[in-house]
């Protein structure tokens, strides 16, 4: 996980009496090289260059339809990326015409990456020197199963670098689910229809697939950070590997099923896909309307009511884009200032994967029985079984992470397997109650005998 700064593995602390009584002073934070910023910028530039190359190729071959959709997906995600960086850095309230110009020509991530690198080099030169402006940060840590409150001094420069990292994490999710997912799905569809894979399209699909996997992995990390903001959280290599395998299998199997389903039914698949997306998009607004809550007006101090509504709509579109291809790891709550439900809602996660599994099975069956002209050289039955098995394996890695590898699993009142066990026991008890005789009828039957 890309961290802003690191702390020692565990502070040398004796037994702590209570969280309220003791505050442990941690060591000075050590800033790390911003690999995440470089990697996100590399993915953005690579996907942009390959998309523009394919637009040029489609134009030369007079394939206007394919060119239009490829350019549209690239432009929409790029504009949303620029708006995300501007929003996080609050550039509209600052006098920075050069940065705004770079965002206008869709090169905002490049200039932001340069600023982050300059800030990192400045910190390296000043390493060991005390900064004049520092602030205190307090986080909880679980040491031997006990909560300990630890305090650090964080300099202004490190906080600025942290803001760059957070901005790029959100940018990567915007790029992944509003740009790379539709781009990858469409290019796979074109490949199936045309039965050829030119080098430019293959490069574009590779960049899109890496971007989607990286964005989905960041979804889990950011969800943990948001839900447990009071805690200092570390994800080790094993946890990150488990999340990556889980998300890779989930997304690749889901997108391949969507592509095969769309290639089988052509335009007839469009109503099903649009309806699916609209249900996900409108679900948070229906819950917000039924709750009778007021729209939060303190998301950003300088925002008017119209600005707040635009932010809520943008967040809802991103939430729908994520849930259309994989689990978002967060439940949107529009009435809350934080816009997310910080509770560990196992029911929402179980419902999502149950519905998606049923959908995938239905789409695979449609491809199996109707997709004769899609893949002539492959066994449709074998491919259908492989895709369903891959999705089920991804669910298994998800259960493995929450059961054994979640960094704060000791804080759960129960875990996902316990929840599923309770649901099964509850259903079994209901079945027994329905099948058993009422006490009055049983006594009447005994008296008759």
TrEMBL record:
It is found in: Membrane. InterPro entries: XK-rel, XK-related_adapter. The keyword Membrane applies. Keywords: Membrane, Transmembrane, Transmembrane helix. The keyword Transmembrane helix applies. GO terms for cellular component: plasma membrane. It is a multi-pass membrane protein. The chain crosses the membrane at residues 31-54, 66-88, 174-195, 201-223, 306-330, 350-370, 382-405. It comes from the Eukaryota. PANTHER family: MEMBRANE TRANSPORT PROTEIN XK FAMILY MEMBER, XK-RELATED PROTEIN 2. Belongs to the XK family. This is XK-related protein. It comes from Oryctolagus cuniculus (Rabbit).
């Amino acid at each position: 996980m890309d961290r802003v700064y690191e702390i020692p593995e565990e502070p040398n602390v004796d037994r702590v009496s209570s969280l309220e009584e003791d505050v442990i002073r941690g060591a000075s934070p050590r800033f790390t090289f911003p690999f995440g910023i470089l990697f996100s910028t590399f993915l953005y530039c690579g996907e942009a260059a390959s998309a523009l190359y394919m637009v040029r190729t489609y134009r030369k071959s007079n394939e206007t339809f394919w060119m239009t959709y490829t350019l549209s997906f690239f432009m929409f995600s790029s504009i949303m990326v620029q708006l995300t960086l501007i929003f996080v850095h609050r550039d509209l309230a600052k006098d920075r015409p050069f940065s705004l110009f770079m965002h206008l020509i869709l090169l905002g991530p490049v200039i932001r990456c340069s600023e982050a690198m300059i800030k990192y080099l400045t910190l390296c030169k000043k390493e060991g020197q005390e900064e004049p402006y520092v602030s205190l940060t307090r986080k909880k840590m679980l040491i031997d199963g006990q909560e300990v409150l630890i305090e650090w001094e964080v300099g202004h420069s490190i906080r600025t670098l942290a803001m760059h990292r957070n901005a790029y994490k959100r940018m990567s999710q915007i790029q992944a689910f509003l740009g790379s997912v539709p781009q990858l799905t469409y290019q796979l569809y074109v490949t199936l229809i045309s039965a050829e894979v030119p080098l430019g399209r293959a490069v574009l699909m590779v960049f899109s697939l890496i971007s989607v996997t990286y964005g989905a992995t960041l979804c889990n990390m950011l969800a943990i950070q948001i839900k447990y903001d009071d805690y200092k959280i570390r994800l080790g290599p094993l946890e990150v590997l488990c999340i990556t395998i889980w998300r890779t299998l989930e997304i690749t199997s889901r997108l391949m099923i969507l592509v095969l389903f769309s290639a089988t039914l052509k335009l007839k698949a469009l109503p099903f896909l649009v309806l699916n997306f609209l249900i996900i998009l409108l679900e948070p607004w229906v819950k917000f309307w039924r709750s009778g809550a007021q729209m939060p007006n303190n998301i950003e101090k300088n925002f008017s009511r119209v600005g707040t509504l635009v932010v809520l709509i943008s967040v809802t579109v991103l939430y729908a884009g994520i849930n259309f291809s994989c689990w978002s790891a967060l439940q949107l709550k529009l009435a809350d200032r934080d816009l997310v439900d910080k509770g560990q809602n196992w029911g929402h996660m179980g419902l999502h994967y149950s519905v998606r599994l049923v959908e995938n099975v239905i789409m695979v069956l449609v491809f199996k029985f109707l997709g004769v002209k899609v893949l002539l050289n492959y066994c449709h039955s074998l491919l259908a079984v492989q895709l369903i098995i891959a999705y089920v394996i991804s669910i298994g890695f998800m259960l493995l992470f929450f059961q054994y590898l979640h960094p704060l699993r000791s804080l759960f009142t129960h875990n996902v397997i316990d929840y599923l066990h309770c649901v099964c026991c509850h259903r079994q008890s209901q079945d027994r109650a329905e099948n058993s005789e009422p006490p009055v009828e049983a006594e009447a039957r005994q008296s008759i005998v």
